[in-house]
Every structure is written in C-alpha cells, then in structure tokens.
Amino acid sequence: MLSFILSKLLWGLVAPGNALVLAVALGALLLRTRRWQRAGRRLVTLAALLLLLVAYTGLGALVALPLENRFPRSEPDGRIDGIVMLGGAVNPPITADRGDPSLNDAAERVLAFADLVRRHPEAKAVFTGGSGRLLGQEYKEDGSARAALLQAGIPEGRVVYEAMSRNTWENAVFAKEMVKPAPGERWILVTSAMHMPRSVGIFRAVGWEVVPYPVDYRTRHDAKPYLRFEFAHNLVILDDAVREWIGLAAYRLMGRTGELFPAP
To answer: What is the pTM of this model?
Structure first.
C-alpha cells in the first residue's frame, strides 16, 4: 500500500508536464525575492527552453520509440489457450456519470482484445484492472470494460473480470490467481506498445509466460526530431514514456522484474 501511495505522489511531482509547470511557478516566486532573483531567472529560462523543446520537437517520440519497438507484434499461430488484457483504456468516472462506456487514448486495447476473443473462441479471456487512482478507488475499470466489450459484440460471460488490481504488478498477480494458467499454456498479452516491456517483465517475474500483442502505438517506427507544432500531443507522449522508463527502473529495484529492459 505504501509503495502505491508513494508512486502516485512522486509521479505527480516528476511527470514532465507537472515538473515544468512547477519549475515556472517556483522561478516566478524566486524572482520576487532579492536573494534568489538570479536563480529564479535561470529556472524560468530553463523551464521555458524545455517547454519549447517539448512543444515543437519530436522529443517525446524519441523517448518512447525504444519502448514501442522493443516487442514487435506478430500474429500468433497455433492454439491459443488464453488472452489477457490489461486495464488502462477506459474512463470509469465518465462512464458512471454519463451511463455510457468511455474509452481513452488506449482504446485500441479494447478493440484488439475483442478481435482476438472473436477469432479464438477456444481461448479463455480475462480483463484485469481495478483502479489506479490514489483517490476514487470506488471507480473500478471492469464495469466500463464490460460495457465497451458488449458494444464490441463480446457476449456477457465470455470474459472473466478481475477488478481489485491497482497497478501492473497486481494485474499480473491477481489475474494469475484467478485463471491459474497451467505450465505450457499459450496466453496472449494485450496492452499498449509503450507499456509492453514492463508488462512482459512483470508477467515473467510472477511465472507467467505470455505472447506479447502490443497495440496503441503513439509513434512511427522511425520517429525523428523534426518540428511538430502539437504541444499537448507531444507532452502526453513524453509523460507516458518517462513514466514507463521510471517504472522499469523502479520495478527492477523492487525485484518485480528480472531485467531492467525486458526483451523478446
């Protein structure tokens, strides 16, 4: 529980977008002092330059590219025993408020999962995702995912839903306890391409070998640092990529993965 709380609080400070805003605010405060005016000017100047770099270059894509290219997707052949999709593609509060399933930028997870479930009727299917929110734990992802999959043509009862996990480690642990995959079974893992290295490392650590099926790509395979006048888009990619790199390092230090950067 403590590690979960600390991870949320620390990320709120070090997320690139938040960190840049805090740097500008701190710099502005320092400018109002006599003793720290020079430090304030330097901090505001540095933050402004970094904001320009994020806003108008492909920096975020360059940071994300190694993550997204780590596990190329290949269509699994032969028998598939199970398919597991990680949560993170739905907006439970919006779903609860509007009464209609709401998806976010990772909606491809739901589409790919539904497609695989239809094409492999013999396979078990499991969704794993509770709530990764520090506040608002009552908003679980399973209800939104269930409603979205019903709209995608997946009948009630076809998918098993795990709704207690709060992060990727718990996704793997709780889903494994629920479905008890047997040794030698072939399970497909569906999650965002950027998230796949950490996810595969965690599943390996809990003793569950999976076939990676990355979706939700945010970059081209040959991303280049050319000018992009898309600040919000660039910042979201950078935030997501930095979170994954930090997550890889943190999970390795905690022993939740066996490798710093898991590979095929």
So the answer is: 0.90
